[in-house]
Design brief:
Largest interface: A-B, 13 and 18 residues
Number of helices of chain B: 7
Strand content of chain A: under 5%
Oligomer: heterodimer
Shape of chain A: globular
Order of helices and strands of chain A: HHHHHHHH
Structural class of chain A: mainly alpha
Helix content of chain A: over 70%
Shape of chain B: globular
Number of strands of chain B: 9
Number of helices of chain A: 8
Structural class of chain B: alpha/beta
Largest sheet of chain B: 5 strands, parallel
Radius of gyration of chain A: 18 Å
Number of strands of chain A: 0
Strand order of the largest sheet of chain B: 6-7-8-3-9
């Protein structure tokens, strides 16, 4: 709910601020992924942070294998973020008068970028869930991981919006590979993060 | 086939920064025996239980689980252990029954109903846990601990928030199964410590 509210409010605020003047493709791409990024950061971390806040994480540790917990949390986050993107992307396109030149490529990049953000934020949330000062720590440790995702996603999205944009499949492959590596490493390492020191 | 379980702890220590909670702890306990862990507040009773249950890493030493003398993998240990702790809480937005079904989807309904009756929670099974009293929550936590009839039962302050009826239910159940289980209890209650066959006191 928080994620969706943020996305809607941000999109509406931008739309009202520009007053119907179409933005350039690069600005549209940047704003889109900044909204997606902050939605992910604000909402997806709750899957682990709430467990700690409500003192149910030990209950979960006792009754479930770490791998089961990780897979269920990451699948949940991927699905929630996908649903968010499905709801917000059309709204963003409509309100900001976005003209998509390569629709298939645009959709693929949105999905791949969303996959990368949700898988990355999930494991980062597991790491910071037990820490104090969660917000600042989350920002610091997410920066090196999320930056390449945003950079590639913005660049690829821009190419799908420009009149003579050159969409490179390598960007899509990068995002998918990034997600795959993130899931694989997280699956292997999650047990050590999950266990109390 | 009857299986004999053994827990062997060797040279267990736990340190946080420069503070040593406990060290040089050794014990061995097998099926049919019960261990009481006593000590003042902050002595590390809960930490020791969590180390034994492989929910926390020791600073030194090791805990081995054996079945009929053969060591089992760490990954299999949680399947054998029922663990109850004040730090472990069921989901308050779910009902008692939903919490049971969440972790025990394979457990027969008749077994669940029997345990709900035994622990005096049958009438409250569809109520959200957030509306349970502290005693009812404790009963639910104990029920969840024994739901799968684990061969090893670890209880951290099991009598906390329980009235005399609740304690009676708990210990009559434990008495009925003590010959076929390893039972570890961390407690400050003398009666609970005396119920066990072996005692470790943490200073």
């Amino acid at each position: 709910m928080v994620m969706f509210s943020f996305a809607v409010i941000a999109t509406l605020a931008i739309s009202l601020s520009i007053g119907g003047i179409p933005l350039s493709p690069i600005v549209q791409s940047v704003l889109f992924w900044i909204i997606m990024f902050f939605c992910g950061m604000s909402g997806l971390a709750h899957v682990f942070v709430r467990e700690e806040e409500q003192d149910t994480s030990l209950f979960l540790r006792i009754h479930s294998q770490p791998e089961t917990v990780y897979l269920s949390k990451v699948i949940f986050n991927i699905l929630v973020f996908f649903l968010l993107q499905m709801a917000i992307t059309p709204l963003y396109i409509f309100l900001l008068q976005v003209e998509i030149r390569m629709i298939s490529a645009f959709i693929m990049i949105v999905i791949a970028g969303g996959l990368s953000i949700s898988t990355t934020v999930t494991i980062l949330a597991a790491i910071i869930a037990k820490a104090g000062g969660k917000s600042s720590l989350f920002t610091v440790i997410s920066f090196p991981l999320v930056l390449p995702i945003l950079w590639i996603a913005i660049s690829a999205t821009r190419a799908t919006l420009e009149v003579r944009g050159r969409f490179e499949l390598n960007n899509l492959y990068f995002l998918l590979a990034f997600s795959g590596v993130m899931i694989a490493l997280s699956y292997i390492l999650f047990e050590y993060i999950w266990l109390d020191e | 086939m009857h299986q004999t379980f053994t827990i062997e702890a060797e040279n267990i220590a736990k340190r946080y920064n420069r503070q040593t909670l406990f060290q040089n702890l050794d014990f061995s306990i097998e099926t049919g025996r019960s261990l009481a862990i006593t000590g003042p507040n902050g002595s590390g009773k809960t930490t020791l239980l969590e180390i034994i249950a492989t929910l926390r890493r020791p600073s030194a030493g090791s805990v081995r689980y054996l079945v009929n003398g053969i060591e089992i993998e760490k990954r299999e240990i949680l399947n054998l252990v029922g663990f109850q702790s004040p730090r472990s809480n069921p989901y308050s937005e779910l009902s008692g029954l939903e919490n049971i079904q969440f972790i025990g989807s394979d457990v027969d309904d008749t077994v669940i109903d029997d345990l709900l009756y035994r622990f005096g929670l049958y009438e409250h099974r569809n109520k959200q846990v957030k509306f349970y009293s502290s005693g009812m929550k404790q009963r639910l936590k104990l029920l969840l601990t024994i739901l799968f009839r684990p061969p090893i039962i670890i209880l951290d302050e099991p009598g906390m928030n329980l009235d005399s009826a609740g304690r009676s239910i708990l210990f009559s159940y434990l008495e009925s199964i003590r010959e076929s289980r390893i039972i570890l209890i961390a407690t400050n209650e003398v009666s609970e410590a005396d119920w066990c066959t072996v005692r470790i006191n943490l200073e």
